[in-house]
Structure formats: structure tokens, C-alpha cells
Amino acid sequence: MMVPARLPVAPRPFRDELVTSWMARVAARYGAEPFELMVFLAGQAGRYAGARQIDDVVPDMGLLRLWAKACRIDPERLRRRSLASRYPGRPQGWLLTETVPVCLACFDADVAAGRDAYLRKNWRLAEQVVCPEHRTMLLDRCPACRGHLRLSLRMLNGLLRPFCRKC
Ligand SMILES: [Zn+2]
Ligand SMILES: [Zn+2]
Asked: Which ligand is nearest to the CA of 147?
């Protein structure tokens, strides 16, 4: 993958976006998975061995700085989007770490607004079963293949759209 350590194009995080969602959007712009891009960025900074998945709850500050520098963003701005910072005092068991359920109406709203699809912070709250905005059930299974939802973002007409990894 040929990208300079400073990425020429990097979308900004949305106000209510998960850090890992923003990273997935940056990486997808380069046809990469977030982990692949992070290994690359870490390698450029000479700390390949430290590359690992970013955690939405308490992200590693060293890795956040790496992304922040590559994307010319204040690392504090990214840290404030971590779940530990957004929901201080919340027990970690009340935050979902595996499958993140999604609201399809939110994704439709992204299309209507002409922006990238992205994952909302409150989708990781264990008690959140309904989208507070659309009053529809959050889905943790793909409506087409019924498998546990694992999304990947792909570019479609210049904007990222969610796709099921399994079907
Ligand atoms: Zn919604
Ligand atoms: Zn599917």
C-alpha cells in the first residue's frame, strides 16, 4: 500500500461517531482495513511491534496520536470520542465490544444527507435496543443472511456505505 505517513485525504470524525468507525472510514479511503492502515502508520513511526486494534472504550493514546498525526487532527479530539470519556463512570460490562448493533434508518439518513455511513456512539450501549432518533430496533443480525452483523465500509459513488462481510 503506497500512502505517505501524512494521509492526503482524511475525513473528520462526526460528533457522535465511534473512534473505530472514523478509523474505518479513513482506512476505507485507501482500500484498507483499519488494522492494515495502522500497521502501516506504526511502521512509518518505527513502532511496528506496538500495532494492535484500537479499543473504543479506552484507546491507547500512543496509537491515537499516530492516527491524529497522519490525519492532522488534535489527538485530544479523538480521545474525547472514546467511550470512557463520553460515558465516565459507566461499568465496562455495559458497553458492547463484539457485535455493534446498527440502525438502518440512521444509515438511510446518511445517504439522504450525502455523507459517509458511520457507527453511532450509543449503538455500543448494552441497554440501547431502539434507536433514540428513529424509534426502530437496532439490528445485530444481517437482514439478508441472518449472520451476526459484521460490517465493512466500501466506497460507492464517492461515499462510504455499509456492507455485510458475510453476504
Ligand atoms: Zn436511527
Ligand atoms: Zn449478510
From this structure: 2
Q: What's the confidence (pLDDT) of residue 72?
A: 94
In a domain, 13, yes or no: no
157 within some domain:
yes
Q: Is 87 exposed, middle or buried (0-12, 13-18, 19+ CB in 10 A)?
A: middle
| Residue 2 confidence (pLDDT) | 47
Residue 72 CA to ligand 1 center (angstroms) comes to 30
CA of 25 to the centre of ligand 2 (A): 20
Whether 136 and 103 have beta carbons less than 8 Å apart is answered as yes
Give the chain's residues under pLDDT 70.
Answer: 1-4, 45-52
Is residue 10 included in any domain, yes or no?
Answer: no
What local confidence, expressed as pLDDT, does residue 159 receive?
Answer: 94
Domain tally for the chain?
1
Q: How far is the CA of 62 from the centre of ligand 1 (A)?
A: 33
143: in domain: yes
